[in-house]
Amino acid sequence: MARLISPDSDRPFIIVERDGEDRLLDLPQSDMRALFERHGAILFRGFAADLGDFSAYTDRWCAASVFNESPDRLLLDEAHNIQSVNGGSDAFPLHPELSREPWKPDICFFHCLTPPPAGGETTICDGIAIVRELPREVRAGLQDRRLVYAQPVQPWHLRFWFGTETPPAWLLAQPPAECPYEFRMIDGHLMRLFSRPVFHKPMFSDAQAFGNFLLFARYYLGRSDFPMLDDGHAVPSGWVDAIKAVGDRLTIPIRWQRGDLLLLDNSRFLHGRNAISDPHERLIASYFGYLREAPTNAEEPADPVWRRRPMFRPPQPPARQGLGSAAKTM
Fold it and tell me: What single DSSP character describes residue 301?
């Protein structure tokens, strides 16, 4: 049986370490699911897993997956939506995966195929702890507030959701029930909008968590207009700086070893990475999925398409459909 190393004050994740001849796929799924629901983050270490084992293990957990269309990712296994992580060398601020879109996945898998000799640690932070540690005035200012994500509409978005690139105005005002967006003209441009709470309830906790695109947009993309508060104003810089300060203090690096596999509850944990001296020396496989028997998410449409299709591909330009990379959406 594998050895369990419980979380402590300096490490918010549980380690499942190989003991003897155990294989990753031999671990009792009900036990692993219970650990995941309790802790939200598991690092499997010492298991000789390859991409085939990785694919089989993600299937054990997830009923469906989503393709990440952001650039600089290798498509490692197209049949199973397994990609590399972003191939650049930049450090990334904390964020939940794909929180810039309404199909934010439930769970993230990261599998270390080639560890970097130095740097390139994946960083993680518990969003519940962020809310708990925020200054009182920041927490009070953001309590019960929502973030609004507005992005330009392209023809392929309309074709995907409406079946035509030229839907009439009345149809834009009444999109199909499975469409997660509101469509609105803003400064002469047709925009697609959705919103989420600043603080939300994770899948397996009654505590509030912080987990959205705010820190990535503000500190990596340099944008204060995406997302916006529900009153149309930018989140005050002082509040964002306070959130970052708390997140920085609580962030823990994962120093990768070959074969490591990290599971994160994407509704609770944020992740980022430290700068990489040579990105060609680091290869991490990723898979972003929708959990089997996941709790209902009241923020999503009923029976959303991304949970219904085994491998969901977001709307993309025709030239990019079926390819392993796609143009930036912002």
Answer: P
Whether the CB-CB separation of 263 and 42 falls below 8 Å is answered with yes
Q: Classify residue 290 as exposed, middle or buried by CB count within 10 Å of its CB (0-12, 13-18, 19+).
A: buried
Instruction: Note the pLDDT tens digit of each residue in 166-198.
Output: 999 999 999 999 999 999 999 999 999 999 999
Asked if residue 262 lies in contact with residue 43, where contact means CB atoms within 8 angstroms, the answer is yes
Considering its fold, how many domains does the chain have in total? 1
Query: Quick one: 44 exposed, middle or buried, by C-beta within 10 A (0-12, 13-18, 19+)?
Result: buried
48 confidence band (pLDDT: 50, 70, 90): confident
Domain assignment present for residue 200? The answer is: no
User: At 290, is the secondary structure helix, strand, or coil?
Assistant: strand
Within a domain: residue 198?
A: no
Q: pTM for this structure?
A: 0.94
Q: What secondary structure does DSSP assign to 8-36, as a single string?
A: BTTB-SEEEE--TT--GGGS-HHHHHHHH
Question: Any idea what the CATH number is for the domain that residue 306 is in?
Answer: 3.60.130.10
